[in-house]
Design a protein that fits this description.
Strand order of the largest sheet: 3-2-1-4-5-7-6
Strand content: 15-25%
CATH architecture: 3-Layer(aba) Sandwich
Shape: globular
């Protein structure tokens, strides 16, 4: 019977979206029931693969000007701070001392209308993790908190010229977009458009989540629109570091 139902839903093209939404609902219910102390132990990214890709990013960006010319690391969607910690550890390993690490997150999960985007695969409150948990992760891993700026709030409220001026952000060299939804990725990309100097590496953590890339939704849709709006940028594919990720090297044409 289940095979018949699956076949029928496949024929209508709704089986995979429904399956993904069911998995997401289970995930968010587990997340809501998970204590903050347990979230400290969760690893949502493959750390070794991510660090390898970050080293590759640094290598590309320092071929002509050297490590001393690298700008800051900006991360949109921090969760418990694992990815940010990975970037800090790679920067320390490679002797990059001037880079600062910015993390932007609501720290209360996806926004209220999350279910209205990307075919309804997201859920309000999904990926919720408190800012104190993220700070505990950074401390546990020996991250120098003096070089880290965490900004709490939804992107529509926090990604603006005021935060750029307040922290003197002039150049983003490595950018992690791990905010899942189309609108959030779009807001993050608009925020960095004037912070990209000659080049930057942008990592998307949920590019293929729920098959969104095949439908030109989610982070892919936001990136396509970004490139269409900025013909001065060219991009080259740098592959991925995990199951749903995609990485690009962006160059500003003279």
């Amino acid at each position: 019977m289940m095979k018949i139902v699956k076949s029928a839903l496949d024929g209508l093209g709704v089986y995979q979206p429904l399956r993904h939404r069911y998995k997401r609902l289970r995930e968010i219910s587990r997340n809501l029931a998970t204590s903050e102390s347990h979230k400290l132990r969760i690893r949502l990214v493959p750390e070794n693969e991510l660090k390898a890709k970050l080293r590759e990013a640094v290598s590309r960006l320092t071929r002509s000007d050297g490590a001393g010319q690298l700008g800051d690391y900006l991360e949109f969607g921090v969760y418990n701070g694992t990815s940010l910690s990975c970037m800090y550890e790679v920067a320390t390993e490679l002797g990059i001392e001037q880079m600062r690490f910015f993390g932007f997150d609501s720290f209360q999960g996806l926004p209220r209308d999350a279910h209205k985007e990307d075919g309804g695969i997201w859920v309000r409150g999904q990926f919720s993790c408190g800012i104190e948990t993220a700070r505990a992760m950074l401390d546990e891993r020996g991250v120098d908190r003096k070089r880290v700026i965490l900004t709490k709030g939804f992107f529509v409220d926090t990604l603006n010229d005021r935060v750029v001026a307040a922290h003197g952000i002039t150049k983003a060299s490595i950018v992690m977009i791990d905010c899942d939804m189309y609108s959030s990725a779009r807001t993050a990309l608009r925020f960095i458009e004037n912070l990209i100097d000659k080049e930057a590496v942008v990592l998307f953590d949920d590019w293929t989540a729920g098959g969104l890339d095949q439908k030109n939704l989610g982070e892919k849709k936001a990136f396509i629109e970004f490139l269409d709006a900025h013909p001065e940028f060219s991009e080259s594919d740098m592959g991925s570091y995990g199951m749903h990720s995609k990485v690009f090297h962006i160059v500003r044409q003279a």
